[in-house]
């Protein structure tokens, strides 16, 4: 019975994480979607319009970008990387730590207000970190 409880608890946590990402994406027209990935790049939860993005691809690319940027930050003696912002001609990406072993990846429209989007991504990442404990 204890094993069943553990599985149900994990499933409930997965639903909670998906709902948190969905609320983030729905909070502003600037957000296109979001995905929560483990430090290994495995997708834990995602929220975006069906068919828009491949969760696994986004997770893998974001994890690698964060990993490389973390190395650069450490090499420059700037401490632990907390947030990575990528500005692209077709849209932007904010990647934030969500606890010790996860990343929250948010895809933004090109006209998105980076400061506000970054703040919201950080806020949700902090909430996610509490759920992942």
Secondary structure: elements and pairs:
Blueprint: H1 2-26, E1 31-38, E2 43-47, H2 55-75, E3 83-88, E4 91-97, E5 102-108, H3 114-132
Antiparallel strand pairs: 1-2, 1-5, 3-4, 4-5
Helix pairs in contact: 1-3
Folded structure, characterized:
The protein is an alpha+beta fold and 133 residues long. The chain has a single domain (2-132), classed as Dynein light chain 2a, cytoplasmic (Beta-Lactamase). Helices cover 49% and strands 25% of the residues. It has three helices and five strands. It has helices at 2-26, 55-75, 114-132, and strands at residues 31-38, 43-47, 83-88, 91-97, 102-108. The chain has a five-stranded antiparallel beta sheet with strand order 2-1-5-4-3, sandwiched between helices. A hairpin with a 4-residue loop joins strand 4 (91-97) and strand 5. Helix 1 (2-26) packs antiparallel against helix 3. The longest helix has 25 residues, at 2-26. The radius of gyration is 15 Å and the shape is globular. Mean pLDDT is 85; it is low at 1-8.
